[in-house]
Amino acid sequence: MVEIVEVVKINNDNSVEVTCPTTACKGCSGNMFCNVKGKTFSAKVDKGFEKINVGDSLKIFLPPARTISTSFITLMIPLLMFPIFYLLSPAAKESFKFLSGILGIALGFVGVGIYFHYSKNKYYPRVVEKLN
Predict the structure, then answer these.
(1) Mean predicted confidence (pLDDT) in 87-102
(2) In Å, how far are 22, 54, 102, 104 from 66, measured between CA atoms?
(3) How far apart are CA 28 and CA 71, in angstroms?
(4) Is 71 left (phi over 0), alpha (psi -120 to 50) or beta?
(5) Over the range 110-132, which residues count as b (16 or more CB within 10 Å of their CB) and which as e?
(6) CA-to-CA distance for 91 and 97, rounded, in angstroms?
(7) Domain range holding 114?
(8) What is the 3 state secondary structure string of the chain?
(9) Which residues contact 130 (CB under 8 A, 6 or more apart)?
(10) What pTM was estimated for this model as a whole?
(11) 128 backbone φψ class: left, alpha, beta (φ>0; ψ -120 to 50)
C-alpha cells in the first residue's frame, strides 16, 4: 500500500516523523476506522536518499504482508494466551481459572509490546519518493 504523507520531524536514526495530510482523509476508504488521523508515525529513509526537510510531501510504502502480520501478531498472540493460561491453571475454581486466562491475555499484550519494541525497524514503512 502506498500513501502520501507530510514530514513533521527529522530523526537522527535515518527515520522521519510523518503525518497524513487532512486532504488525504477525504478520499481514503479507511477514513472511518483510521487510527493515525492527527497522529504522527515513523517512516524509514534509506541511506543515499535525497535531502528531506520538514514540510516535504513523501510517498511511503507499507508492505501489505507486514501490515497483516503486525495485526495478526498484535491480536492473536494475546487471544491464544487465554486458553493456554486457563487450561494450565492449577486452581479448581472457575473464577480463578478465568482470572488466570485474563492474566494470560495481559501477558500476551506485554510480550507483543516488547517484541515490537525490539523489532520496530523491521515493520517501519519505507520512503520511496519525495514529491516536492
Answers:
(1) 88
(2) 25, 27, 28, 25
(3) 20
(4) alpha
(5) eebeeeeeeeeeebbbebeebee
(6) 6
(7) 2-130
(8) CEEEEEEEEECCCCEEEEECCHHHHHCCCCHHHCCCCCCCEEEECCCCCCCCCCCCEEEEECCHHHHHHHHHHHHHHHHHHHHHHHHCCCCCCHHHHHHHHHHHHHHHHHHHHHHHHHCHHHHCCEEEEECC
(9) 49, 50, 52, 56, 57, 58, 59
(10) 0.68
(11) alpha
What is the structure's pLDDT at 105?
Answer: 96
- Reading phi first (left if > 0) and then psi (alpha if -120 to 50, else beta), residue 38 is in left
Note the pLDDT tens digit of each residue in 26-54. 666 665 556 666 677 888 887 777 788 88
Greater confidence (2 vs 72) lies with 72
Grid coordinates in use for 82?
Answer: 487465554
For residues 107 and 121, what is the distance between their CA atoms, to the nearest angstrom?
23
By the 10 Å C-beta count (0-12 exposed, 13-18 middle, 19+ buried), 7 is classed as buried
- Locus of grid cell 495530510: 21
Q: What is the count of structural domains for the chain?
A: 1
